[in-house]
Amino acid sequence: MQLLGDGGNLLLIVLGFSLLIAIHEMGHFLAARWAGIRVDAFAIGMGPAVVAFRRGIGWKLGSTHHEVERRLGAPPEQISMERLREAGIGETEYGLRLLPLGGFVRMKGQEDLEAIESSADPDAYGARPIWKRMVVVSAGVVANVILAVLLYVAAFMVGVRFESPTVGEARIDGPAATATNLGGGDPGLRAGDLITHIDGTAIHTFADVQIAAAMSKPGRATLIDVQRPGVAQPLRFEATPVDDPAARLRTLGISPARDGEIVDDKALDPLLQPALQRSGLSAAGVGPRWKLASVNGAPCTTMELLQQACAVGDGAPIATTWAGPAGTTAAATLHPDVQLQRLVPADDPEQVEPSLLGFTPLTRIDWVRPGSLNDGTLKPGDVVLAINTVRGPRLGEFRSLVRKQAGRQVAMQVLRNGTATTLSARVDSAGRLDVLIAAAIDQPLMARPIDRVQGGGATAVASLELGALARIDSIGGTPVTDWKTLRAALRSAGSNGGAAMQVTAWGADASRTISITISPDDAKALQALGWTLPLPLEAFDPLMTTLSAHGNPLRAAAMGFDETGKLAVLTWLTLDRLVRGTVPVDQLRGPVGIVHVGARVADRGFMYLVFFLAMISVNLAVLNFLPLPIVDGGLFLYLAYEAVRGRPPSVRFQNAATMAGLLLLGSLFVVTFYNDVMRLVSGG
To answer: What is the β-pairing status of strands 470-475 and 478-479?
Structure first.
């Protein structure tokens, strides 16, 4: 809901969106005047008139119609041009309507929401030649395209900052991490790889990478060209994008690279502050806007280099130094987190559970929103032992259980400072506790095992035998105190094929011993797991790149035309994917969603806002020229039919088509409005 509190950005986007609509309608207006068609009204927005202007009348609150009728005894539409001119009154009312969600130009003999009518009057829409009417109908789209190019030129003349198409992290089980190296080298993209082309198309930003993956054909491999640091020749990989259940789009399973500066974003405080505290950076005085300076004594300015130090250090502590915004410096030692496997339960594919050979950790509360329903009830560090009747809920399972209790209270048992505590938590109407959760890897307690995982496989038999809330005390005589030592013990056991595991149920004194066998494949998978930063990727600012024409107006124009054409094709492809069902309906955005995104875009700088408005202008052009009734494309089709058949479609057909178009667009408005509101409510 941050948007609602950011009035400046909101106003800026509403004005920008209104400008795009005004330019579109201005295109129709100027073309109509050129074609000799009488224009009765030019309005920005929909609904009742707020303020209007008419030559000879001046500015009026509401409409000028009443004043014209008072002076001349009839509504302005019923008065001839000659009589209006004799009275010194203009034929066009320029108005601003209550809702800034559209606009219209009302021409004589043609209404936006009615079938086209013919008229014997020479200044009526239907009396003009077909080719002139085609110009009038398409002029709004042309105006939006021209505006988009101009906005792109302005943006590229100054330069626009985007996230660099540099790989930050390749998800261990994702397409990029397992991509085939067509040159015969090691498979998989790595952190620091700069993606230059996908299927031969040049890639300039990380958004280009995401779009290329999302718009790829299902099941078809893509060619990815990268420039790898320290490698002279470009590398080419082949990978097949997969569906991301969370985003409901195809993805390559990579995240953008991050630089070494910690973000300063209040919206990320729930994620950032607990991470800074757990990592020890807060205790060292390091916080937002501090920049990484060195790692283990070597200069280091990017998060990827810090991550690499974690990967090659085999869990050893990492010495770092940081530079503060006021010229101060600080030293801090970071302790890498153990990397776990990822399991997807067969009965709930939207869950992704961290795991080691089927053993899954419990859920830990890392942060509670101040002033929320559970502030003071739940505390950071609480480990969830049970929720309602479910003992030892897994991380993804815990989220699912909470969502199902929306608007209710739930009974919970948590481990707090070594003691079991029973409490009652409240779930809000959206199915949230207003807390941040993480895997409880600081102690070797087991969550409920997963019976079967996606793909038909079963989790480790040993994990099924242990059950929920089992504590692993040792493996093969090696003590286990947390998930770092658990993984080390499992690796050691894997090299020998198996070992005895000593287990204690939580809160019990008696222990028991079971034997585990680790297959060669499982042993290999354990050895492949590395180490990760004790900080989330979101803690660092993205690595940025600037698209600029370097002051060359011709280059800026070429970039503008290229971006306009690319986005127009992308919009058509998106509509095609939407019809085919490969792009979900819940990804659609309406006017509210555009304003929501735009308000956040405004935070990235004025030039990025200009670029964003250019994108929306292209979208307006494409959508308005779809072959659908009541939009420009449908009217153009009617004119093409009239040119071929010598007569327009029947009024009955046009009325039926108009009603169908209204039903379609009305349904689309309802769906997009619902999506937009849900994103606002959920903070998405």
So the answer is: antiparallel
Q: Are 78 and 69 in contact (CB under 8 A)?
A: no
Please name the residue that has the structure tokens 């400046």: 8
Q: Phi and psi at residue 49, in whole multiples of 5°?
A: -70, 135
**CA 612 to chain CA centroid, nearest Å:** 14
How far is Cα 140 from Cα 456, in angstroms, rounded to an integer?
A: 55
Tell me the average pLDDT of the chain.
81
Q: Three-state SS for 516?
A: strand
Minimal CA–CA distance to 433: which of 373, 364, 380?
373
CA dihedral angle for residue 165, residue 166, residue 168, residue 174, rounded to 10 degrees: 70
537 in Cβ contact with 587 (< 8 Å): no
Tell me the C-alpha to C-alpha distance, in Å, between residue 49 and each of 40, 75, 341, 361, 407.
Answer: 14, 16, 60, 61, 42
Cα(264)–Cα(250) distance, integer angstroms = 30
Return the half-sphere exposure (C-beta side, CA atoms, 13 A cut-off) of residue 283: 8
CB atoms within 10 A of CB 4: 10
- Phi then psi for 473, rounded to 5 degrees? -90, -35
Best CA proximity match to 351, nearest among 438, 454, 501:
454
380 with 367: CB under 8 angstroms? yes
Distance of CA 171 to the CA centre of its chain: 18
User: What is the pTM for the complete model shown?
Assistant: 0.63
- What's residue 126's pLDDT? 81
Q: Which of 258, 295, 221 is nearest to 543 (CA)?
A: 258
- CA 18/CA 610 separation, integer angstroms: 14
- Residue 563 DSSP SS3: helix
Question: How many other C-beta atoms can be found within 10 angstroms of the C-beta atom of residue 521?
Answer: 8
Kindly list the distances between the CA atom of residue 577 and the CA atoms of 217, 219, 245, 619, in Å, as whole numbers in the listed order: 9, 14, 17, 16
Closest CA to 357 of 246, 243, 464: 464
Give Cα separations from 514 to 477, 481, 517, 523, 557 (angstroms).
13, 18, 10, 19, 71
pLDDT over 60 at 41, yes or no:
yes
The whole-angstrom separation of Cα 259 and Cα 504 is 44
Q: How many CB atoms lie within 10 A of CB 683?
A: 10
Between strands 318-323 and 298-299, the pairing is unpaired
Give the start-end residues of each E strand in 450-497: 470-475, 478-479
Question: How many Cα atoms occupy the beta-carbon half-sphere of 315 within 13 Å?
Answer: 10
Give one word for 212, left, alpha or beta, with left for phi > 0 and alpha for psi -120 to 50: alpha
Q: Is 431 helix (H, G, I), strand (E, B) or coil?
A: coil
Arithmetic mean of pLDDT, 645-658: 80
Question: How far is Cα 263 from Cα 659, in angstroms, rounded to an integer?
Answer: 50
At residue 409, φ and ψ (nearest 5 deg) are: -100, 145
Pairing mode of beta strands 254-256, 249-251: unpaired
SS3 (DSSP) at 384: strand
Cα 42 from Cα 30, distance rounded (Å):
11
Q: Which of 464, 530, 119, 590 is nearest to 313 (CA)?
A: 530
- Tens digits of residue pLDDT in 131-174: 999 999 999 989 988 998 888 888 888 888 888 899 887 876 78
Q: How far apart are CA 336 and CA 341, in angstroms?
A: 16
DSSP 397: H
> Which domains occur in the chain, in start order?
1-37+108-159+548-684 (no CATH), 39-107 (no CATH), 167-256 (2.30.42.10), 262-325 (no CATH), 341-537 (2.30.42.10)
SS3 519: coil
Percent of the chain with pLDDT over 90: 18
